[in-house]
Amino acid sequence: MTDDRFRHLPYRPNVGAALFNRDGLVLAARRADLPNAEGAPGVWQLPQGGIDEGEDPAVAVLRELREEVGTDHATILAEHPDWLSYDLPPHLMGRALGGKYRGQRQRWFALRFLGDDSEIRLDLDPHPEFDAWKWVPLTELPTLEVGFKRETYRILAASFAAYAVPSA
């Protein structure tokens, strides 16, 4: 539920990438800015990021992959038909996303990774968003991520299930 003080704020336009490898597993990355203490699993999510003004979402998703995981060696398989939105949790309202947005409005893509694992590089950005990554079954996404994105990941697990299979 959104704090009434922040209802006037817009949603940030955003893209997200469900990047599938040849085995039908999806790339999940652990956020570097949240506690990843020993014994704690950390917060895992799919790569995502803002859409620049006037930028086509299909272009933005490949740019975000390159920026966040070091490679855009992928092809788009599908686009979720709807924009999915979420509100930030109350403790992040007015703080996260520069305090300018109440949450994000996202266009999600399923992509097939065409490279090999050595191309995934989290260390190319001087301030990396992620500090670890792994391939996981698509059905595990809702159990890995931060709570306020859980419903989005449930929708994606159903919408992109056809791509969670080994490719020829």
Automatic annotation (TrEMBL):
InterPro entries referenced in this protein's UniProt entry, alphabetically: Nudix_hydrolase, NUDIX_hydrolase-like_dom_sf, NUDIX_hydrolase_CS, NUDIX_hydrolase_dom, RppH
Cofactor(s) listed in the protein's UniProt record: Mg(2+); a divalent metal cation; Mn(2+)
Nudix hydrolase domain boundaries: 10-158
Hydrolase among keywords: yes
CDD domains per UniProt: NUDIX_Ap4A_hydrolase_plant_like
Gene3D superfamilies with a match to the protein in the record: Nucleoside Triphosphate Pyrophosphohydrolase
This protein's UniProt keywords: Hydrolase
SUPFAM superfamilies: Nudix
EC number per UniProt: 3.6.1.-
Residue interval(s) of motif Nudix box: 49-70
Molecular function terms, GO-annotated: hydrolase activity
Superkingdom of the source species: Bacteria
PANTHER family found in the cross-reference section: NUDIX HYDROLASE 26, CHLOROPLASTIC (PTHR11839:SF22), UDP/ADP-SUGAR PYROPHOSPHATASE (PTHR11839)
Functional summary from the UniProt entry: Accelerates the degradation of transcripts by removing pyrophosphate from the 5'-end of triphosphorylated RNA, leading to a more labile monophosphorylated state that can stimulate subsequent ribonuclease cleavage.
Annotated family: Belongs to the Nudix hydrolase family. RppH subfamily.
Entry protein name: RNA pyrophosphohydrolase
